[in-house]
Amino acid sequence: MTSSDNVVPDRRLRPEQAPAAEPAKDRLLAGAPTGARAFWAFAHGMVLLELAGRFPPDADLDTTWRVGVGAFRPPAPSRWDRRAAAGEREVR
Q: What range defines the domain where residue 56 resides?
C-alpha cells in the first residue's frame, strides 16, 4: 500500500468557488507551470505528512504552511523598481 492508496474525500472546488480561488493562484504562481508543479509538490507532501501523523506533536504546522507558501511568492520590489515604476530616473 502506498500513500496515494489512501481514500480521501473529493473536495474539489465547486464551480461557484473557482473564481474566488483564481486570483490568489495567479498572484502566487504568476502563470508559471514549473512554479505550479513545485507548489503542488510542496502542498501534496505537506498534506500526506499531516495525514500520516509524521510531524512531531509540538510542530507548528500553521507556521510551516505560511513559510512554505511564502517561498513561492515573488520577491518584493526593490527601491529602484518602485522608483522606476513611478517614472523617476536614476541620478548618477
A: 32-73
- Asked whether the whole model's pTM tops 0.70, one would answer no
Residue that is written with C-alpha cell 501523523 in the block: 53
Helix or strand holding residue 82 (H, E): helix 79-85
Q: For residue 14, is it within any domain? A: no
At 63 the three-state DSSP class reads helix
Q: What is the pLDDT of residues 23-81, one digit of tens each?
A: 555 555 656 778 778 888 999 999 999 999 999 999 999 999 999 988 888 777 777 76
CA distances from 29 to 34, 52, 69, 76, 92 (A): 9, 28, 10, 14, 36
Cell of 2: 502506498
> What's the CA gap between 22 and 76, in Å, rounded?
21
* Cα angle for residues 67, 63, 4 (degrees, 5° grid): 80
Tell whether 11 is covered by a domain: no
